[in-house]
Amino acid sequence: MNLLYHLKAVCNSESIKLRGKAGEPPRVCVFCRNNGEVEAVYAAHVLKAPDGRVLCPRLRAYTCPLCGVSGDRAHTIKYCPLSREPPPRKPRPSAGPAPPAARRRIM
Question: What is 49-86's CATH number, 1.10.3720.10, 4.10.60.30, 1.20.900.10, 3.40.50.450?
Fold first, then answer.
């Protein structure tokens, strides 16, 4: 049986949930999902194990050009400890929509 066909069949079954409850880790690989992979690919694995090891085969194969790390501790340039820019912070849950930004006068 074709692996991709099998993955699609498994991912389309109602027994698989792609999102957990708030506060739970995602049940899909957010790296693959954000990089445009098909659902059959990103729903077949998660990005990291609970202990922090990288499980995504695509990210594990990537070698950071700044520090040379791949495998269990693989990361993109954006998350490299040698990068000058800090990684983006997760937004905190809010009670409602954000207030409109204050307007500044430009002179």
Answer: 4.10.60.30
